[in-house]
Amino acid sequence: MPQDMPPAGGYTQVQYKRNIPVRGFSPMVYLAGMVGAVTYGMYKYYYSSREMHELGREKIWGRLHILPLLQAEEDRDQARRYYADKAREQELLGSENRVYHSDRFVRPTFAYTPSKVTEE
Amino acid sequence: MARRESRFNQQVLIDTTPMPDHIPKVEEIGATSAPLFSASFFIGDRCRAYNDDFMKCKAEANGRGELECLKEGRKVTRCAASVIKDINTHCLKQFTNHWECLEQNNHRLFDCRKDEVEMNACVFDKLGLKKTIPDAPKELTPVHLRQTQIFSRYPGKQWRANEDGSPITDYHKEKA
């Protein structure tokens, strides 16, 4: 009994993939482009970051140089209010009480407000 | 709305009692933030010793620095006031330009390099005070002497320079 045999010359090729032309550049070009962009960005970042570091140093030293000046002004104001409070206490109570069990200077929590200013 | 004034307003809170007589008087500096920041490196150059002395006194006063370091504080204020006075006497134009630029640009020094170069030239010439940034790396150009500023609003060269890198300033031109 004759068997089914392939046709003479073999089967024709089966088209299993679509016949679409390849678009765009090759993947390596995109990869290279990405690497290039990142490298440029890192190059800029490197120098910007160093400059920003130096600018920060400049700014903080600019403030450090005037810090004692501002602190001295504030301290004088605190001392003025402290002596004023002491004089007021002496006048009203006739004695000086130590509020804190400490020699430290304590910024007053409550400020002295003249009582009649808002009434007038 | 509220019918009566709030009791804790500024007018009421300020205690106007003057300083007692046994403490010597000193005139306060009276300058606002922009002029102080503009002059800060010159204040630092001339007054570094007084500043350090005052801060050391505060650190060693064990919490009583407000009352015990008044003398050092007066020295600090007088020294800074002398710097501001000298700059005002000799370099008023450059100083004003620089601090007004700082005021307009949110105190960003890198936006005011042109005015800063003019001011530094004048102050160094007249008062001998020089702007140096402590602890800056030696191998790099100090950031205030770089012609291009990356972060400036107008990037690129901020001022013109001689071949050796020193700035060409209007101050030196006017003087010559």
UniProtKB/TrEMBL annotation, chain A:
InterPro entries: GRIM-19 (IPR009346). Complex I functions in the transfer of electrons from NADH to the respiratory chain. Accessory subunit of the mitochondrial membrane respiratory chain NADH dehydrogenase (Complex I), that is believed not to be involved in catalysis. It is found in: Mitochondrion inner membrane. Belongs to the complex I NDUFA13 subunit family. This is NADH dehydrogenase [ubiquinone] 1 alpha subcomplex subunit 13. It is a single-pass membrane protein. The chain crosses the membrane at residues 28-47. Its main location: mitochondrion. Keywords: Electron transport, Membrane, Mitochondrion, Mitochondrion inner membrane, Respiratory chain, Transmembrane, Transmembrane helix, Transport, Ubiquinone. One of its GO terms (cellular component) is mitochondrial inner membrane.
UniProtKB/TrEMBL annotation, chain B:
PROSITE patterns: CHCH. Its main location: mitochondrion. It is found in: Mitochondrion inner membrane. It comes from the Eukaryota. One of its GO terms (biological process) is mitochondrial electron transport, NADH to ubiquinone. The keyword Repeat applies. The keyword Membrane applies. Keywords: Disulfide bond, Electron transport, Membrane, Mitochondrion, Mitochondrion inner membrane, Repeat, Respiratory chain, Transport, Ubiquinone. One of its GO terms (cellular component) is mitochondrial inner membrane. Accessory subunit of the mitochondrial membrane respiratory chain NADH dehydrogenase (Complex I), that is believed not to be involved in catalysis. Complex I functions in the transfer of electrons from NADH to the respiratory chain. The immediate electron acceptor for the enzyme is believed to be ubiquinone. Belongs to the complex I NDUFA8 subunit family. This is NADH-ubiquinone oxidoreductase. It comes from Aspergillus saccharolyticus JOP 1030-1. The lineage of its organism: Eukaryota, Fungi, Dikarya, Ascomycota, Pezizomycotina.
